Each structure stands twice: as structure tokens, then as C-alpha cells.
Amino acid sequence: MEYEFKRRSSQVLNLTPLIDIVFLLLVFFMLTAHFIEDEAIDIQLPLAESSQPSVEDDTVEVTLLPNGELLVDGRAATMDNLEETLRGALHAPNKRHVRLKGDQAAAFGAGVRVIDAARSAGADSLDILTEKP
User: Fold this and answer.
1) HSE (CB half, 13 Å, CA atoms) of 109?
2) 90, 91, 65, 92: which is closest to 79 by C-alpha?
3) Is 84 helix (H, G, I), strand (E, B) or coil?
4) Which pTM does this prediction carry?
5) pLDDT-flagged residues of the chain (< 50)
6) With contact defined as beta carbons under 8 Å apart, do 59 and 99 qualify?
7) How many CA within 13 A on the CB side of residue 104?
8) For the residues of 112-132, what is the DSSP string, one character each?
């Protein structure tokens, strides 16, 4: 009896199309990620010669817009409920400081009311953010 040996196929999986697709996906994500912009509130900080760089730590940021609107950590607030909102935000762990980021065109009286509300809410300190000229 004669035995016929099975021939082994020498086919190898072709990975070239897979590598091409991975590179195309990489290029696609690199190009699209470049066009993503962060949304930001356009405010003009007041200028001060003695201004120092701000250190990012756990603080509550109050933004005072030129039209009088208030944002507490990015969420809308009103002057009437500002003290309650700040008290709730300062209740979080490690948040005992308030930063006032006010537009230079905002009313001075509104800034004073924010400072007063921060004191009443129990803030340990309040920083007013400015820019160097």
C-alpha cells in the first residue's frame, strides 16, 4: 500500500490590509482631534502690574460676566441665590477658597456683592483674577 502524504499549505495570513486600516484610522483621529476647540467664556480680565500666575487647586470659581450674569464653577447662578450656591459648592471636600473672575466691564457693585456672598458662605479666602499688561 502506498500512502500519500498530505501537503501542508504554506499560506500565511496577509496582514497588510489590516495595517493599512490601522494607519488610516490613526491619521483620521489625528486630523479630527486638531479641530476640536474647547468652549470658553470670553471675558476680559482687568490688568494689574502685581498679578501672579494662578495655581490650579481645588477652588470654587465665580465668573462675573459684563452683562451681570454669574457662573459658579460653570453653572448659572443668580445674585439672589449666590450665597446658597457658594455654600453648597464650598461644602465639597478641599474646597474652601473662592476665585472671582470678573470682566473689566462688569459693574463694581456686583463684584462687591460676590465678595460679600463668599464671606457669608464661609470661604477661607477670595482671590481676584487679573492679567499682567
Assistant:
1) 3
2) 65
3) helix
4) 0.62
5) none
6) yes
7) 7
8) HHHHHHHHHHT-SEEEE--B-
